[in-house]
Amino acid sequence: MAGNSFGDFFRVTTFGESHGVAIGGVIDGCPAGLPLDVAAVQAALDRRRPGQSELTTQRKESDRVEFLSGLFEGVTTGTPIAFLLRNEDARSQDYEAMKAAYRPSHADFTYDVRFGRRDPRGGGRASARETAARVVAGAVADQILSRAGIAVSAYVERVGDVAWEAEPAFVPRAEVDAYAVRCPDGPTAERMNARIAEVARAGDSIGGALVVVAQGVPAGWGAPVFDKLQARIAAALWSLPAVKFMEIGSGIAGTYATGSAHNDAFIPSPSGGIATATNRSGGIQGGISNGMPIVVRLGFKPTATIQHAQATVSPDGVPTELAARGRHDPCVLPRAVPIAESMLSLVLADAWLAPPARLDQLHP
Ligand SMILES: Cc1cc2nc3c(=O)[nH]c(=O)nc-3n(C[C@H](O)[C@H](O)[C@H](O)COP(=O)(O)O)c2cc1C
């Protein structure tokens, strides 16, 4: 069924199941003339790959990207860019039990109801493996956005109740990646590591939140009603597996404030133009970027597949118990960082490539 594509002008379609032959995607709408840095795309994938540290699943997915079309002599031709990631290290036998019993809080039951059949190996299309294709597309989008001086970066703000109590801000990816848990504050990162190790030892899992920020987005991107920039960002980020909340700017806290405490005062920007003294709007007003950083907070639930025995039912409704085997992330947050960045980059590339709304910006 449909629903595997995102974007109007920089349009990405992903395909493939976790333990099938390959996963991949097609990017339609990438402008011609971009010398694609394939090594940078591969580096982005390496940031998402499992097994980077003891905090993530030890599944081995080498995730080598192969580009099949849309490039000539390393430069985009303006035609669809197709790419593949072949699947390796598929231990489908680990998932035998999951054919006989629905994993609580996973997608097994709902897929069966919707489709009447599914590929249970590794979670099939509901596996977070699908997000590797989004990271390829996001890395291509990043190379377009960097031409406009736009950078997107995320970090882990909270694991369970262990939080970095800092005002959300842009932190360069290299500073975030200095810590395996991807929280750029050393002491908090250590406490997060300990918390994840503790739940992993107990065969359990834990959730948390990340902050993703786009800096350098000019004022004037977006649309006023159904395609508000925040609506597109929500569609992109809420489409990630295991997401449980999203906030822009002041988010939920802002809804407790008064207008006088909450409004962002306009000021002349030190770099020319107009800025705001605070950024409670999170860089978007009326569905259109205002030139301030776009600031989003995104919350993920604890990984559904845990080693504890859990009560569930078989596909024919008979009560049973399930204790998962297989290699699962005890906390998805560290690996969610590059994936969330990719989705925000896709929204921004799409917004940039949208036709101008002003006569004076139309080319003859
Ligand atoms: C980076 C990442 C890794 C994940 N790894 C696992 C995993 O190892 N095991 C698991 O059960 N769920 C994992 N998930 C979450 C499931 O894919 C997700 O919960 C499932 O598809 C059901 O969708 P829902 O939680 O959005 O309802 C992961 C999610 C992300 C973002």
- General shape: globular
- What distance separates the N and C termini? 40 Å
Please trace the helix and strand order, writing H or E for each element: EEEHEEEEHHHEEHHEHEHHEEEEEEEH
Oligomeric nature of the chains: single chain
How many individual β-strands? 18
Q: Taking all residues together, what is the mean pLDDT?
A: 94
**Largest β sheet strand count, sense and barrel closure:** 5 strands, antiparallel
The number of helical runs is: 10
Query: CATH topology, what is it called?
Result: Chorismate synthase, AroC fold
> For the largest beta sheet, what order do the strands appear in spatially?
1-2-3-7-4
Name of the top-level CATH class: Alpha Beta
- Estimated structural class: alpha+beta
Structural features:
Chorismate synthase, AroC fold; alpha+beta; five-stranded antiparallel β-sheet; binds flavin mononucleotide; 364 residues
What does this structure look like?
The chain has about 375 residues and is of the alpha+beta class. The chain is about 25% helix and about 20% strand. It contains 10 helices and 18 strands. The strands form 6 sheets. Strands 1-2-3-7-4 form a 5-stranded antiparallel beta sheet, covered by helices on one side. A 5-stranded antiparallel beta sheet has the order 9-8-10-16-11. The two termini are about 40 Å apart.
